[in-house]
Amino acid sequence: MRETIEHAREHLGQTMEEVAAKADLKGQVQAKTAHIKEHLHDTAADAAAQAREKAAHVAHTGQAAASQTKDHLTQTTAALAQKVQDRTPEPVRDAAVRTGRVARKPLPWAVAAAAVCVLALVVYQRRTGRQR
To answer: How far is residue 16's CA from residue 9's CA, in Å, rounded to a whole number?
Structure first.
């Protein structure tokens, strides 16, 4: 009988400890909060690392693609320019060169543009009957 009582006391002590642990809601909430906070921190760190890796990969891929496209366009443009030059008659090429030289000198073009504007203004005023 004493053994049974002793066993019952031990069992009752364990049960009381379990009930006390379950009743400690504040401690449970704090422990759970700490666990969730740690998990979220780890998840956020992992996500940030993955985002950095993907961004670096995309940037590198984009730069490589842009470089390849630039090289391709440069080659295509050079080949096309050569074809045009080969198929253009000599007199037309000479005229284009002369036109290019004139176009590089802005003053004659500015004077010509100003003269056209003045002429257009005079014609407009005469047609509408206005004179200053």
So the answer is: 10
Whole-angstrom Cα distance, residue 40 to residue 80?
58
The model's pTM is 0.39
88: which residues sit within 8 A by CB, 6+ positions away? Answer: 96
Nearest alpha-carbon partner for 39 in 51, 28, 27, 31: 31
Instruction: Give dist(CA 54, CA 56) in Å, integer.
Output: 5
Question: Which residues, in sequence order, are CB contacts of 93 under 8 Å at separation 6+?
Answer: 85
* Residue 129 token pair: 């009957």
Tell me the C-alpha distance between 48 and 97, whole Å.
Answer: 58
Total H helices, total E strands in the chain: 4, 0
Whether residue 62 contacts residue 56, with contact meaning beta carbons closer than 8 Å, is answered with no
Each residue of 43-71: pLDDT tens digit? 999 999 999 999 998 888 888 888 999 99
Residue showing tokens 């909430």: 29
